[in-house]
Each structure stands twice: as C-alpha cells, then as structure tokens.
Design brief:
Length: 324
C-alpha cells in the first residue's frame, strides 16, 4: 500500500486533532440549538416544474436563524406507505443542491428526499449578512472578525450547521415520514454538514459522509495545506493578521465550527469514506473527527485516491441508507 502524504495509517487511527476546543463549546451549541428550536420555520412548498412519474417534486423554503429564507429541493414518492424513510442531502463547498434527477434513485425506493442549498453559496438560499470583516469569498472566515471581538455566534458556519439540522427536523415532522428512519449524506463540505447535522439532530439514524471538510483547521494550517478549499485561512491572516499576533485566538474561534468537536454528539450509525492521498481535506483532519465518534461507525479507505470520485462509494452509501 502506498504511503499517505500525511501520518502513517496506524497513527491516523489514533490521532485526536490539534485544533483547540473552546472552553464553552457545549454551551455555545446548546444556545444555538435553543435559538433554532424557538424559531417558527414558516415552511412553504411550491410545486416544481420538474416532475417524474413516481415522484412529487417541490421547492421547499423555511426560515432559518437570523431570518434567512433557506431553500431545499423536496421529492417524495407518489406511492409509499405512511411513515416511510427519508434522506437529507448536503452539497460540496460553493455548490448547490444540484439536479432533481439524481435524487430519484432514493424516491424509487420509497424515500422522501430533501437536498439543501447552503446559504450564500451556489443555490437559492438567502444570506442576509450582518457580519463585519472579510466577506471576500470564504465562508470559513465569514464572521471570524466578529468572533475575535467576542461574538462567535456570527460565524457563518454556525448558521449553516443549524440550517442542516433544521432541515432534518422539518423532514422528520412530515406526516408521511418515519422520524426514526431518517438519514443524511454528502461529500466534502456535504460530508462535514452530514456530520454536523447528525451531531445537532442526533435522531438522524444513519449518516454517510465522504471525505468531510471543516475539521482540524490548525492541522491543515501546519501541513501547509491552506489552499484550494482552505485558501481563505491564509487570506485571512494576510489581510487581517499579517504578523499572526492573534493566531492562537483565530484557531480557538474556528474551533466552534470544527466538526471534530461536534462528533461526540452523534448517536446514529456513521459510514465514512476517505482517500489517503487527499490533499484538499487531509486524512489526519478527517481522522480527528472520525476518532471522536462514539456511535457505531465504519471507515471505507481508498489508499490511492485523493479528493475525487471514489469507485463504488455511491453504491456503498446507497446500500447503507437502504438499511433505514
């Protein structure tokens, strides 16, 4: 087996991460969840132009934290037993919920499907703003200046993580969905959001995550991998802390939206796919989160692959979610 460019596999299996966990991390997320639970989501459904013989397709919108109207595609089977399973889907960084057609494989098996558009990215969800500092392009650092000034609740990924959990809750409350048989899936950013959703809505029974993003930021930095999807970390320092006088504080604040610290909250079963040559989301950053999951879990390892299509993983994830 080729060597990973990261730690050897035996060390990865025990690695616990180096990005700091804020002392008030649990209180922070408990307060965030209380804010979300207090919302009237004002869910609306509008029939979509796209329809299929076995599916009803809708534009779903709901109100998230901060007043944003969040969009998701919703597909439900025309003929399915009451209390059938569902899956919530999350997309890659800067992307969107994608096409309707690729969701039909789950609808064909009697699933309701909801696919989120992350606020401020490539889909239809609103980003009402309200933060100072860098909004040049990166969502990892959106709100970081406010966090450094004592307002970590302004971190954009706090709001996005809550949107993911809120959409799962909305699906679970649908009269035809069995709330005990809801899964989540996604790759890269979508993998991170799958982990975050399963942590913040622990009723999610199965989570299939492919090479998750947004974990162990300090390790990514120390590996000199703050490029590609993580490039905004370097940009933030260059623009707002060029002498790294606040470096420790930067990584501490990012710890609020580091999925490795949310991972212990997961109660559902997790299937995790990883490429050991992944230079976008380094293996150690992923293992930092995976190793903290105490629920039933399994990691599918691709030794020769990076951040790319992993042969057979879509089939594996499908079969895993069919177990709901």
């Amino acid at each position: 087996m080729p060597l990973t460019f990261d730690f050897p596999l035996e060390r990865l299996r025990t690695y616990q991460g180096i990005n700091p966990r804020p002392a008030d991390f649990d209180a922070y997320w408990d307060a965030a969840l209380a804010e979300m639970h207090a919302l009237d989501p004002q869910v609306s459904l509008e029939p979509a132009d796209f329809q299929a013989p076995n599916a009803e397709c809708f534009h779903l919108r709901f109100t998230g934290v901060g007043g944003a109207r969040i969009y998701a595609k919703l597909l439900r089977p025309k003929k399915a037993p009451k209390r059938h399973p569902a899956v919530v889907m999350y997309h890659g960084y800067t992307g969107s919920s994608g096409d309707w057609a690729d969701k039909l494989v789950y609808v064909g098996q009697g699933f309701t499907v909801a696919a989120l558009d992350c606020r401020g990215q490539g889909g239809r969800s609103e980003d009402p703003g309200g933060v100072s500092g860098n909004t040049h392009r990166g969502h990892i650092v959106r709100g970081l200046a406010d966090a450094l000034d004592g307002a970590p609740e302004k971190l954009l990924f706090r709001q996005i993580f809550l949107d993911c959990a809120q959409l799962a809750r909305i699906v679970m409350a649908m009269p035809d969905v069995d709330p005990a048989r809801v899964g989540a899936t996604g790759g890269s950013q979508g993998g991170a959001l799958t982990i975050a959703a399963a942590a913040l809505e622990p009723r999610i029974a199965r989570a299939a995550a492919v090479f998750p993003f947004l974990s162990d930021y300090k390790r990514v930095w120390e590996m000199d991998q703050a490029k590609d999807a993580y490039a905004e970390l370097r940009e933030f320092f260059r623009l707002f802390d060029p002498r790294h006088e606040r470096e420790d504080a930067v990584f501490e604040k990012l710890g609020y939206v580091d999925i490795q610290h949310l991972a212990p909250r997961i109660r559902g079963e997790v299937l995790w796919a990883i490429g050991l040559m992944d230079t976008i989301c380094p293996p150690s950053s992923q293992f930092a989160a995976y190793n903290k999951i105490t629920a039933k879990k399994d990691m599918v390892i691709y030794p020769d692959f990076g951040h790319e299509g992993l042969p057979g993983i879509a089939d594996r994830n499908f079969q895993f979610l069919m177990g709901l």
